[in-house]
Amino acid sequence: MKLKKIITISAIVALLATNAIADLKRFEAKNGKWGFKNESGAVVISPKYDVVGFYGFTKGLANVELNNKWGYINKKDEVVIPLKYDLAYEFKDNGLAEVKLNGKWGFINEKGEVIVPVKYDMAYDFDDNGLARVYLNAKCGYINAKGKLVIPLKYDNASGFDDNGLAGVELNGKWGLINTKGKVVIPFKYDDIGSFGDNGLVSVKLNGKMGYINAKDEVVIPFKYDMAWDFDDNGLATINLNDKSGCINTKGEVIVPIKYDAIGSFGDNGLVSVKLNGKMGYINAKGEVVIPIIYDEVSMYGFTNGLSSVELNGKTGYINEKGEVVIPFK
Fold it and tell me: 171-224: per-residue pLDDT in tens?
């Protein structure tokens, strides 16, 4: 019975110790060094690192820098992967992290084993399709998580694959789209190309003007805009014509008049900031002015927790989504 009690107490102590370091958050000390605290605010890893990764611990490891070299530590502050890299990013869900050494990029696993050779001039994160863009000798291709080159290094430039499994690639100054097998879906004939949305349209540029095509390379919205961005979740796309901005729907109908000097991005509340004649306010997805265009500035982030900072006559205050002043100007 006594032995069982001792074991139980030991188990509780171990559990408390584990919980104490279960969720560590980075912090910067007054001396400019970085360390980690637990949820109670107690210092678990003393501030001795020059920099620690923005995301802290991922996959049980944190990327840290000391004396201009990066490596990885565990939550006991034990060095798991030596501090030898010029740069090292956090581990992702696939268990890989990008590292840079002697000007070249590759990927390692959580044991520090090199999975993708550190030989590329640039390497980007793996997308949901399991492929990552890599550049070597001014050419771009795609590798899988085992380091195998699945799409050759032959493109001048490229984007990551979108949710539809398509990527914009440039060859000899023209853009097209390929799928994850490297098959050309949209021919190389455009000056620029965006990403397909759920509505099946993508913005493209040809002879200095922009419009929208479908997956069959059929023109749905004519090439007449100076700039045209991808469609958002509201089914609207911001376009620019003669230095004025507005929004169109997937039929090409103008929903927000092309009269604004600038338009932001729609928030979850269905509002977007606009600028007109040097003043700013908010409109909805119907193009209706919800908050008068009277402010000198509004928050570039839109509304956060139902509030937006606004500036008027050199003073800053906060308004709610009805335009009511919640925190006075001062």
Answer: 999 999 999 999 999 999 999 999 888 888 999 999 999 999 998 999 999 999
User: For residue 21, what pLDDT is reported?
Assistant: 54
Average pLDDT of the residues of the chain: 92
Can you tell me the distance from the alpha carbon of 220 to that of 64, in angstroms, rounded to the nearest whole number?
A: 50
Kindly report, residue by residue over 225-256, the tens digit of the pLDDT: 999 999 988 899 999 999 999 999 999 999 99
Cα 136–chain centre separation: 23
The mean-pLDDT minimum among 3-12, 259-268, 306-315 falls in 3-12
Q: How many CB atoms lie within 10 A of CB 45?
A: 23
Query: What DSSP string runs through 96-117?
Result: -EEEEETTEEEEE-TTS-EEEE
Instruction: Please tell me whether residue 14 adopts helix, strand or coil conformation.
Output: helix
C-alpha–C-alpha distance, residues 247 and 272, integer Å = 11
Residues 122 and 135 sit within 8 Å (Cβ to Cβ): yes
Instruction: Name the DSSP letter for residue 307.
Output: B
Three-state SS at 1: coil
Which are the contacts of 208, defined by CB distance < 8 A and separation ≥ 6?
191
Sequence-distant (6+) residues with CB within 8 A of 308 are 282, 298, 299, 302, 318, 319
Kindly state the tokens that stand for 245: 């901005």
Question: Cα(220)–Cα(16) distance, rounded to whole angstroms?
Answer: 62
Rounded Cα–Cα distance for residues 298 and 271 (Å): 12
Cβ burial, residue 112 (10 Å; 0-12/13-18/19+): middle
